[in-house]
Amino acid sequence: MLALKFFLMILGLGLFGSAGIIVAYDVYVAARLRWLLEQSSGQGGAEGITLKPDRPFGPIRSKLAGALALAGILPVLLALSISVVPDGYAGIRVSQISGVHPATLYPGAHFQTPFIDTIVLYDTREQVYTTSAASGPKTTGEVLSVQAREGLNIGLAVSVRYRLDPTRLGSIHQNLPQPVGDQVVAPVVSSIYRQLAPNYETREIFAVKREELRTHAADAIKARLASDGIVVREVLLRDIQLPAEYAKGLEGLLLKEQENDRLGTEQEIKQKEVRIAELEADAQKARDVKRAEAQAQVRVLQAKAEADAMQYTLPLKQKQIEQSKLEAEARKEATLQNAEAAAQAKIIDSKAEVERQRNLADAEANRIRVTAAADSERMKYEASVLKQNPMLIQKIIAERLSDKLQIMMVPMDGKNFFAADVMRSAFQNNLNNSGSVSPENPDESDDRAPVAATASQRKPAKRP
Known about the structure:
The protein is an alpha+beta fold. It has helices spanning 2-46, 62-80, 169-175, 180-196, 202-206, 210-226, 244-388, 392-401, 420-434, 442-447, and strands at 82-85, 89-95, 99-105, 108-111, 117-123, 127-132, 142-147, 153-164, 230-241.
């Protein structure tokens, strides 16, 4: 509908513009022709000839322009007769003839009489009126100051959330000043809080009866504004600003009250601890009495049990004594028998030891005889071997002198043996250095030299 209104308005203005353009064009053409004719007539007058138009100029197309203007009036009137109420708003129709119409115009398109009716729009959404508790650089709302019962000025920060009743917009438009928030809501809120605040003390407003003051003020504000068609949703008391000196004194008083409450709480705790200690002592006493009684009863029962048991224990003890005597006699008899058996065993052991010593002596004598015979036989064999090979004596002596000597057997004549001369010269040099062989008897070294070198000149060698 809003697009249709704009289209009609544009169409009407276009027709009006077309009519004006046509009239202006015709006037321009007529003026141009007149100017051309005047120019032509001036040239002819100079030559003595005067030119006059044979026919008048063409008329202006006033009928066409009028028809276009009349045709443009209709769309404009239709566009002016359409009004659109946006969302969140409501309107009332005010006539220049009959005044305010009671019916409310809700969001949407509505028809009106052009140049007679006008539509006044009102915001029906919820609005917030706020006040500040104290003035400052960041203060946005009005400062609301009230007096308590003591005459002290208290700053209140109040927020009122309200909206206009759409069904009573006609009465609001006729009776209430505009704007409603500043001219109606603000004075009502301020006056009600100023009327209720003197009923309370400063301390009550700040602490214990703060919610009560807010509730009474909210009820009064709702009732007062409802009569004017204003619906109040909520009234909030955000903050309270006390006088500076009173705030300091109240802070000190609150600290003292908190300290008093703390001391009272601690006193109660101490009393409870004392009571708990008394109860625990009584309970411990009762437990001790019960334990003593129980122990006494247990001892009585034990004594009775022991007395009853003694009647059966004495005969049992006598039997145990008799049994012990019998066991002692049996142990004594067994000890005597064991001693006799041990003596006999020692006698048998001594006889066996004598027999063993005799056998060992016989065995040792036999061994000596056998060993002597074997040694005699061995010496006979060795004597025969040495008689056959006299050089074995030197070999045996060399072996017993040191285990690091290497023995090499060579033939006595040294024939057909390439190392005989080398070995003989080396052995002769060693003997000369040690002084064991004299140079006058060189043949002795040849006869006793079956080996080629000493231990210091050769590496350890294995025995053949």
